[in-house]
Prior knowledge:
The structure holds two protein chains of two kinds. Chain A is α/β, with parallel strands linked by helices. Chain A folds into two domains: 5-167 and 244-295 and 357-390, P-loop containing nucleotide triphosphate hydrolases (Rossmann fold), CATH 3.40.50; 308-351. Chain A has helices at residues 5-13, 27-40, 54-60, 74-79, 95-106, 110-118, 120-125, 132-147, 165-178, 180-185, 188-191, 202-215, 217-231, 234-249, 263-279, 308-322, 328-362, 380-390, and strands at residues 16-20, 44-49, 70-71, 87-92, 152-156, 253-259, 283-291, 366-371. In chain A, helix 12 crosses helix 13 (217-231). In chain B, strand 6 (194-201), helix 9 (204-220) and strand 7 (228-233) form a beta-alpha-beta unit.
Amino acid sequence: MTPDPKFDAMLADREVVVCVGCGGAGKTTVAAALALEAARRGRKALVLTIDPARRLADAMGVESLGNRPQEISRESLDALGVPGAGNLSAMMLDMKRTFDDLVERFAESDEIRDRVFENSIYQHVSNALAGTVEYSAMEKVFEMHESGAFDLIVVDTPPAQHALDFLEAPQRLLEFLDSRLVKMLIHPAFKAGRFGFRLFHRATQRVLHVLERITGIGFLEDLSEFLIAFDAMSVGFRDRAHRVRSLLLGPRSTFVLVSGPGQISARHATDFLDRLEGYGVSLAGVLVNRVRLWPSQGPPPADEPRRTADVEALRDALWAGEGADYPAELAAEAAADAATRYAAWVRADARSAQPLRERIEAQGCFWGCIPELERDVHDLSSLGCVADRIAGKDEEP
Amino acid sequence: MAADDQRSLLEHRLVIVTGKGGTGKTTVSAALALAAARAGLRTLVAEVGPDEQIPRLLNPRAPEAGYAGCAILPGLRAMRIDPFEALAEYLGLQLGVPAIVDAVVRNSAFRQLMTAAPGWRELITLGKIWHLAQLESEAPPGRQFDFIVVDAPATGHGVAFLDVPRVVVSAVRTGPLHAHAERVEQMLEDSDHTLVLPVALAEELPAREIAELTGRVRDEMGISIDRVIVNAVVGPPFPAEISDLDEVLARLDGNLALGALPPPRVLTRCARYLRSRHELNRRFTAEIQHSTGLPIVELPRIPDGIQGPDQISSLASALLASPVFLE
């Protein structure tokens, strides 16, 4: 991207940068490259990823287990141009562990903790419990921020079906625990075997009846057991969820929307922006990843019929360089075709991003295009190339 | 080498298209549905995600299909399975009394519970698919299908999606829910009936994901999977005798004026880009084949992206090609 003071300010001042966007845009790579760039600017940066992209993880020295930040070696940092003041760590979220840790922390007694862990519902669904990935990720960000070990935490958010699941997750979990239905399920009368019918709201009774009819009473009893244990932890949980939210929506944090090139990505990104605005989230800017840019000043040439004389000039240059045996006629046509093909890609990428770009720039946020690399990003040196391109230190051939 | 003993995609009854976001899963679902309808099968294509894309990909004048669905081309219907609507339908079938169903679905405590409750969206969605795939004697006229394509949620979610019946069968030990989950599980495991069709890009991360996905679907869940669709493949960019064209161009004077053609410096970058994408695609296609042990169907990259029916139509026939083990 073209250097932008708003981008520089983000990397210099913010404490949490949350990368959001749809799956497939390369959010994990961009998050890691942003953390690397911050480290190059002398900050102690951590990238927290959810995506188990193993080779990137291996290259960064992040193991899937452990759930703890791992520092990139000084030797690697030197090679990447990170000054002595800066450093870079990476960690991969182990969701189940994070959630188990929370239960450990907030369970009032060992008995409650064990009851949660042994509950068949917790065992089977703690991985699937709506919002647990999102909640665990945000919980981890908060824990790392509290630890004071990092100046900047870059978060790679999980691909969410609904754009901002991870912001809503803690609240939803709490609302769920507070809901009348759950209160009823955790009432001692329920455990005693029958619902204390007179005690409860009629509509809620009816819902419970329906649930019982569909799921069977055994399931509801297990669910009740799980919720009773969970409810005992909800005070600590509640306070924590509130603080996580304040951090993410407060002035120390900002959001970056990562999008891919192409029409469909641009449409998803636009939807995403609408929702972010609805939340009053502070958006720093948009990074469009893997954009094809024309490798020269200005836009690609218009798609006009080729002039024979131009192709012949190229053919002659190829003959002069490679000798009379070289199939220069074929090569000159192929080279011109390659330029036409590539130019079409470049134009399509620019066209599809234009409305989004106008909107973002009108809002005073940064807009950056990250040119597509000619190879895949799977190690620290290629990650360094992405960081170069984000920072506008693009190399010419 | 062609893989023998392969059945055609169209010889199944239910094909669940899955893959990471951005791989073109939805495009492949649309193309497969189109291919089936053209082959004379009464076809349904169902989307599962929050937004609806397929009807307009296939027919720019198509209305919103929604849960009720609509005919978008002769012999081809589309729908979007919304879990809450599927739940209301299911409760209607179970309870029979519309007033009660209505009261339950609109009850705020119930909605709160369902918003937070895990797994039911996947289960009810698969339950609806099971219902749609029942023998035609049980389906109302105009809703009988020979072939059903499901555009599953992006991987991660996609695998969890298929795993839910199994989890429910073991977590809920008895009762109607247990029985329903078991029926859905049986449908998924019936290899004559159901096929999971993974879509991948021939790039590092998607290639790795697809190996994990096929491993889990085939080996842990026991669901049939017999090929990988590798999408958006950039073919050889230059004729074989000049396959190193970018290197040759790089040896020219970079700023040589070529009239309206870009100078060699720029031509080199264009040629290098095409060649490197091609080589990358080839390398990771081989890796996908190696790590999954499955034959491949390649779909070409469409330069301007998918704009509508014309591109979908060209993909539809490529999709039905016999999968091959590449050399």
